[in-house]
Amino acid sequence: MEGLKTHKLSMKDINVEFPGVKALTNVSFNMESGHIYALIGANGAGKSTLMKVLSGVNSHYTGSILIDGEECEIRSPKAAKELGIEIVYQEVDVALTPNLSVAENIMLNTLANKMGKKQFVNWAEIRQKSGEALKKLGVDIDVRKRVAELSLAERQMVLIARAAMEQCKFLVLDEPTAPLSHTETENLFKTVQHLAEKENVGIVFISHRLAELFEICEYITIMKDGQVVKDMPITPELTINNIIQLMLGRMYDENYPKKAVEIGGDLLELQGLTERDNKIKDISLTVKKGEIVGIAGLVGAGKTELCKTIFGALQIKSGNVVLNGSVINPKNPTRAVKSGIALVPEERRREGVLVKDTIYSNLTLPSLQEFLSKIGFVVKSRQLAASRSLIGELDIKTPSESQTVALLSGGNQQKVAVGKWLLSDAEIYIFDEPTKGVDVGAKREIFKLIENLAEKGKGVIYASCEFSEIMAVADRTYVMFDGEIVREAAVKDTNENELLYYATGGH
Known about the structure:
globular, Rossmann fold, 6-stranded mixed beta sheet, 507 residues, alpha/beta
């Protein structure tokens, strides 16, 4: 880093309050350019809130922020950018413009400046520079393509490429690997290390995939209940169990004690199911009453497309969806819900919850018919009562059922996305990457919730690229590769290595 100035950033005694919640209490955090820092904690610990202070989103903080010894006021995202601070959020669609091209999204700030000054845009240059930014990340995406047409993983990489273009001093990555495959994650790590080592960028890396932190980070800050509980270098003596204990305030047993649930007859059957655009092909599988069926596969294998086709969000080209012996073939999600199918989607903020609405309106939405008066008006008091019960059952951390969902942590948003279906009394529950972006404690709670559904005789589909989760929670699993099922096995008769072998194209 010869010739590059070292920059220092210090956050001192930062406090943030939301209605009824003290989100941060006297938090201090220090970093220096050229190094990579892990920032971790259970859902609701305050790590994202702290980084939103740094990026100018949470402008109502108290405390001080210093860059190179000079105190700064960061009360807007614009102020943060001017100070050289960039953030890539976990929920990528918040920051992308879907109807613009990849090139336009990556070069958005450049375009805005040119148009504001009424300058002509050199489109060839825009495409060239955006292509070079993606190439640094090891990603091959057509820069002319609309962002709306990209996969979740591709959209994540577009955002990271945009941040890398801004010549920032400090870059915050909030769960950047959550939607990425193993290869994409390795490419990201190379880029992050390049930014730190060659371009002198200070990186904050937020992740619930704790093993990743040992691969890429030099220092770690652990938060719990809105406070820093430990700040230290990452050394060979540090273990994942040490970190989890500090995060949760207690010991954590890695082995999930799965309940023995009686499995009944066939509940759901897919017969040669093919999606209209051939994203899934000739899928045949069964789910029995009380059975948890895993759908294992890497990013891009077709898991999400399968879940959406069963739910009627993608159109069936051929084959049948059979529920309780009757062909239903849902043409849209409304019909799927009426037939007794529920989906908790991977992209919870975009598809799973209404983030600008209250918790109680989200929890009661799929079963709103149950809360109508005799003359057809919604009875709010009944909504509130049912929501309070669910909030207690799911242990959703909130001051009130009237809290806006956007103000909840990622794990609590996921609980709302799951909880809204519990009042609907569906027959089949489909979970697509349900633990993405949630901590180990919340993960166990989701497992328990799923097992409770199985105990009630419901059928559960659990789609995940985390094969350890499939092994922990499922009774039987199918492995997908390139839109097809390539392997079926009882979980007791397989292991993670075998699942990975088939998921990567092994035969």
